[in-house]
Amino acid sequence: MNTICKMALLVITLLHVTQLFMPVSLELLTFFTALLFVLGLFIQKSGFRTITLFFFTLGTLILIYYKLPFSIGMQSLTSMTNIIAIIVVMQLFSIPIEVGHYSDTVEYWLKRLFKKESSLYLFAMLVTNLFASFLLFGTVPVMVSLFNKALKNSVSQYQRFFATAIMRGYTLALFWAPGAIIILLVMQVTHVSWSQLFVPGLLLSLIGMLTSYALEHFTRLNKPIISMSETLPATSSIAKNAPKQTAHIILVIISLIVGIGLLERFSIATGTGRILLAGLIVSTIWITYYRNQPELKTVLKNYGESGIMQATDFSVFFIAVGLFAGAVDHSGILSYIQPLLQESVNHLGIFSILVIPLLFILIALCGIHPLVLAVMFGKILLSVSLPLSSVSIALILLISAAVSFIISPFAGMSLMTAKFLHVTPLEVSLKWNLLFCSLFLVEGLVFAYLWQG
């Protein structure tokens, strides 16, 4: 069963890579998607399986009730398989990180530079933010690999420390990372270019990280690091490699941004296709850099046997969410909701910039995916005469989606983080992040209103 799931994952990824250059059969993609879904359900953890079956059943009922064509069902079932392909490709970045022992570099900087938990927290969040710009959904396993050894015995409340740093660092990257799917959707709806969003998005990301740092510093993370007395062995190899490996990580991020930018400049592939292609190229080059390392063969073997299977839980979940989102989109359900929201926005005027994000987040908490909501609310905001620029509207959508990604226990990042840290999604989302999200939402909306670029 595991072997067939791995084969389905690889074929889906290969089909999406092939689709960048030539059309592929929807029927073939649907077959392997259905195969992965059916077999993956047996492998999926119980917490994931419950949510997956909920969305799949609801999506199927909508398709049946509205008597939508079978072709719509196939399109909906496969609508988020591009995300699955991105997850598989982005997981390749974990191979050079493991072969190159980048966790030793992280531990070196942790022990050398940081004395208190709050400064260490800011560093962990910043590193997550940088890695999330190219790892996207693959950020969590890589961050666990990088930080687990260094943090587990160094800070108190390890799981809370790690979960909030990962969730906030990852989500705040969605404001500026050119490959973030939510940015691509918002750009499409608002007709704003990435270059227009980069500067305000980067500023919002910095505001969020500083807010998170201040909140944690003044509430709980003001203690010395527990194991600072246990200094790392001052080996010349670790000290010598640390600056070089730090430069590698920065170079990878720059290469991805430049690569995606060049693909966009020459109109090669779609938005998600550019991420997939750039990620494949950069990760392959990075892996090739370590081609002479004896460990590479073992790490590649482990990735083929078990590493790729880490994508199964999330892949099956995204298939179900894709089916549900596609069914909702094609059924016309949103057309019943939109007039009510439209009337409310017209009545509230400028105050709608407060109400719309709250409605967005509330609906997301009920299980509607933020990607779907970004499109729906984007159309509503653009159709109303407000004293806001299109960039400000785009920022409001990004802020609403970012907060929803953090505090919704149904969001993929909450589920992934909870799984890897062995805690519940409710702890990761609401219990540990609600206060931060409330503060950041207010800051973000004020910033979006003032930014009229």
Describe the protein in words.
The chain crosses the membrane at residues 20-42, 48-68, 80-100, 120-148, 169-191, 197-215, 246-263, 269-290, 311-328, 348-376, 388-412, 432-451. The chain has 453 residues and is mainly α. The protein contains 22 helices and no strands. The protein has helices spanning 2-18, 26-43, 46-65, 70-77, 81-90, 94-99, 102-113, 117-135, 139-151, 158-173, 181-190, 194-219, 236-265, 271-289, 295-307, 312-331, 333-348, 352-365, 370-382, 390-407, 412-421, 425-450. The mean pLDDT is 83.
Put the structure in a nutshell.
The chain crosses the membrane at residues 20-42, 48-68, 80-100, 120-148, 169-191, 197-215, 246-263, 269-290, 311-328, 348-376, 388-412, 432-451. Keywords: Membrane, Transmembrane, Transmembrane helix. The protein has 453 residues and is an all-alpha fold.
Low-pLDDT segments, ≥5 res: none
What is the average per-residue confidence, as pLDDT, rounded to a whole number?
83
Proportion of residues in helical segments: over 70%
Q: What general outline do the C-alpha atoms trace?
A: globular
Strand content: under 5%
- What separation lies between the terminal Cα atoms? 53 Å
Series of H and E elements = HHHHHHHHHHHHHHHHHHHHHH
Biggest beta sheet attributes: none
Oligomeric description of these chains:
single chain
| Radius of gyration (Å) | 22 Å
